[in-house]
Amino acid sequence: MAYEAKTKPTDVDVAAYLDKIDDPRRREDCDALVALMSRVSGCPATMWGPTMVGFDRYHYVYDSGHEGDIFVIGFSSRKSEISLYLSSGFEHQAKSLAKLGKHKLGKACLYVKRLSDIDLDVLETMLKASIAETKRRYPGG
User: What is the pLDDT of residues 8-60, one digit of tens each?
Assistant: First the structure.
């Protein structure tokens, strides 16, 4: 049986997703992230699954043979924080992380409560570096 990815682009309207965020400050933060990520990626926002807003896309193939498509950068408004997805990981971002501000780190996620807790110029630098690294690793998209 072939694997089918759960995280894939949908026709759901990004604005409709954002409008459902109850906290007005969180909604403003997410609107700001759409503007920032659209600008740095050069791509419009697309819903991936029911809760992830993604920008651009690339095709990956693992050593196991598993392959698929995923967004290059993105975010999701979660219950207590915003998850920021930088598909290239964080191993090459140590200096930027030290300057970013208040955050938590997961394997491929950066968690922030509010954008006011972080330096947006540093985040922009990190997003650009992640895009460049992903395009280096996966040329041709």
Answer: 899 999 999 999 999 999 999 999 999 999 999 999 999 999 999 999 999 88
d(CA 22, CA 43): 26
| Residue 3 forms part of a structural domain | no
Cα separation, 106 vs 83, whole angstroms: 9
Residue 63: give the domain boundaries: 26-137
Query: Could you tell me the pTM of the whole model?
Result: 0.91
User: Is 13 a member of any domain?
Assistant: no
> Measured between alpha carbons, how far is 110 from 138 in angstroms, rounded to an integer?
22
pLDDT digits (tens, 9 = 90+) for 94-134: 899 999 999 999 877 999 999 999 999 999 999 999 999 99
Q: Which helix (H) or strand (E) holds 112?
A: strand 109-112
If one counts the domains in the chain, the total is 1
Residue 132 lies in a domain: yes
